[in-house]
């Protein structure tokens, strides 16, 4: 399924870049707080990545990168979540997500269910490899694949649905 969409690549000199990043960072702060009300909601639902996917796919790498970096850092500073121990891995995965989503959007030039799946799988697989290098424990690094399948499904289908809903904006 594909939907034609208005996809952007905003520059750092454009004030919209910062306004959209602020909007998506706010979403990435609120959504994890809601998900952490559920036991194991963070590791299971992977909420810190959701709006990074939307930001980067819809508005390009720069908005996505700002969202990818600021969201986990601000969440950590405000709520100590993610913890300092996992913050580097989350920053790596968030940055990979921003890059993968921007590349997919630029390549496909539409909102595609298959493209969003490719984005989610690529950042998770490559990010798991980086996390394995960081922590030295494959079992710990593969936590998203052990516990986070519901979150990846939410990113895939929910991300697609939201991108489709805002496709013409």
List keywords for this structure.
globular
How would you describe this protein?
With 169 residues, this protein is mainly alpha-helical. It is built from 9 helices and 2 strands; from the N terminus they run βαααααβαααα. Helix 1 (15-35) runs antiparallel to helix 3 (50-59) and helix 3 (50-59) packs parallel to helix 9.
Quick structural overview:
This protein is mainly alpha-helical and 169 residues long. It contains nine helices and two strands; from the N terminus they run E-H-H-H-H-H-E-H-H-H-H. Helix 1 (15-35) crosses helix 4, helix 3 packs antiparallel against helix 4 and helix 6 runs antiparallel to helix 9.
List the helices and strands and how they pair.
Elements: E1 2-4, H1 15-35, H2 41-45, H3 50-59, H4 61-79, H5 87-108, E2 110-112, H6 113-135, H7 138-141, H8 143-147, H9 149-165
Helix pairs in contact: 1-3, 1-4, 3-4, 3-5, 3-9, 4-5, 5-6, 6-9
